[in-house]
Amino acid sequence: MNKHMARFLLISLSIAIFCLAYFSINQDVGSDAKLTLLVSQTLLTQRTVRLDAYAGQTVIDAPFDSYLEALKVVESGGHYYAYFPVGPSVLALPVTWPALLLGYDMQTADSFRLQTLLAALTCVVVLWILNGTARLYLG
What we know:
This protein is mostly helical. The chain contains six helices and four strands; from the N terminus they run ααββαββααα.
């Protein structure tokens, strides 16, 4: 396979994988860490991982108390924290910051839209990594 054909195939696969991931019908399952980007936003705007400011409000189209009941938010020492580790929220800071500057709010459905975009882009990056690795070891 010549170089141009391989490049065309990689670009075509990238577009197909992006579309499959971005337009997937399975975007909201029970194990999702839905509050990851909200924690990122809180880190940027309030310099904390505490979700106290959202208590009693609607968060991503659901009452805050529903996250407590589903154990996605835990109360500790009189403060509210996301159940899932803070690492992904820290890693998402470089994406969350420009999104906030563009007017996105992770307390709303903007969080789902950005998560879907990040997931689709991650799938494409994995394809490129696999392609690069295969090119190193295969003829």
